Amino acid sequence: MNQNLTFNKFSFGTQIRKSPYSDAALRWGAKGFSVYNHMYIPRNFGDPVQNFWNLVNDAILCDVSVERQVEIKGPDAAKFVQYICCRDLSKCQIGQCKYVLITDQKGGIINDPILLKLGENHFWLSIADSDVLLWARGVLVNSNMDLEISEPDVSPLQLQGPKSRKILQAAFGDAPAELKYYHFMEYVWDGIPLIISRTGWSSELGYEIYLRDGSQGDRLWEHLMAVGAPLGLKPGHTSSIRRIEAGMLSYQADMTLENNPYELGLERLVDLDIDTDFVSKSALHKIKKIGVVKKLVGLEIDGDPLVGSNDFYWPVLKNDKKVGMITSAIYSPRLKKNIALAMIGVEGIKLNAALKVVNSNDVRACHFTSIPFYDPKKLLASKS
Fold first, then answer.
1. DSSP-derived 3-state class of residue 218
2. Which range marks the domain in which residue 88 is found?
3. Could you tell me if residue 376 is inside a domain?
4. Which terminus in the chain has less CB density within 10 A, N or C?
């Protein structure tokens, strides 16, 4: 079968890039794709509820090549990375990952990548859905710093779920399976260079496998499925159900350039007391002092199970007056509840009053609850 011809039915043209795993994902049952960072990402392997159960009970393999890497390398790389991030990175060690925020001169969030420190002055930013490469190169122009910024040939896969450690061990031996949470190692498999990290977008035990040679995508995918399928591995896609349960924020959905860390409850990622300067330092000082007018909260929505997820921001009302909006909503089959992330005005939060959410012509009651909705201490992902 000519897989390229088969993929044509999903094509938006040459401006959207396929990943090294696109054809393999199609062979293994992908039925739909979305676009993320100007690339195709598999978003449908059939039943999203079954995909969720595969993830939380066994393991899934996901093409997440759309998590492009912005490589920052050179004598001033460490200085530059700290300049564009608002989290203190002075104690980050080689082989360690950090969840960071890239913020602009007004404190707005440009991206929320995972940072990997490959050397004292060598970093990757594994990015969410925005053009960090262009932003970083723009900042560099007048910085008088000595470094290079590029997008390397790197394409990650996610191996996620409670059986992922055994599958990884079967595929690559003991050393990668012994990685600590938010650490990584360089690894060569059958002559192919990889980086393997104990990270992932699921809040389950999991790993990301960064392929450093895109021509070998088919080989890597098939190797993992051949080794993993007997151990319970299924092809899949990142689970909206699981990430909302975990309170994991999706860039362009729950956060945008218009949001700052304090609105999103991400102040733990802001270090205003460090000696070094960074792009958003002055703005974030001011925001912290003045306070915010809206905050991200968790809601439970009454009524029958929601079908799918929201494809626009649902208004949240109090006494028929809009006080906020639902950014992400889903039905959790595990919790047997409709759960949602919402941006609500602080006055509406203080009142803690009865609220309603409007979904097309459907009006439902909703009420505040804490987030994450499940496993709030992230013990599943971080356990040894």
1. helix
2. 69-150
3. no
4. C
